[in-house]
Write a structure and sequence with these properties.
185 residues, alpha+beta, nine-stranded antiparallel β-sheet, two-stranded antiparallel ribbon, 4 helices, 11 strands, 21% helix
């Protein structure tokens, strides 16, 4: 099951797993309330037949999917890609990831612009809303394999911060002010 916690504001290494002070953990409900990030558990060993994933794909119109594997052995320009993934950015579409193997971290900004780190492992499916500033990094295991889902052909453009004038960002901030509503259950 996914864990999420507030990060300190130090310039610690991006893949640092141990903190001087214990992190302040968030419940999944509080994670959703403060960021709009949704979490689901999926049978990653048989995801093609998982009822939760089937319902999500149908209800949200996910018609395109692919798979990404991040490791030194599998990803061309590994070090550069990790640096790019870790740049704070947003997307115009929501970001859906089902972790099939390995582990890593998605960092998202809450309503108060504070970082929340979300640790993901096999079986975790997270939906990061469009317009939220976020980033990704691997943990010390340096490996993750994930399914990515899209509505139609993917438009995969990161918009680095600042991108506050974009419509998706304005919509996200409006949802943050007015309370996030669950779209998928």
């Amino acid at each position: 099951m996914v864990r999420a916690w507030y990060m300190d504001n130090s310039d610690a290494e991006q893949r640092l797993e141990h903190y001087k002070d214990p992190p302040k953990f968030l419940s999944l409900e509080d994670l959703f309330k403060s960021t709009g990030v949704e979490y689901f558990t999926v049978n990653y060993k048989n995801y093609e037949n998982d009822n939760t994933l089937t319902k999500l794909k149908k209800k949200r119109g996910y018609t395109y999917e692919d798979e990404i594997e991040c490791s030194k052995e599998c990803l061309p320009n590994y070090e550069e890609k990790l640096k790019d993934f870790y740049k704070e950015h947003l997307h115009t579409d929501e970001e859906i990831r089902l972790i099939l193997d390995g582990s890593g971290y998605f960092d998202v900004r809450d309503k108060n612009d504070e970082w929340i780190r979300i640790e993901v492992k096999a079986g975790d499916l997270i939906i990061i809303p469009s317009g939220i500033y976020h980033r990704f990094t691997l943990d010390m295991n340096n490996y993750i394999k994930a399914k990515r889902y899209f509505v139609g052909e993917p438009i995969w453009l990161p918009y680095n911060r600042p991108a506050d004038d974009m419509e998706c960002r304005k919509n996200y901030l409006d949802r943050a002010c007015n309370g996030f509503k669950i779209k998928s259950t």
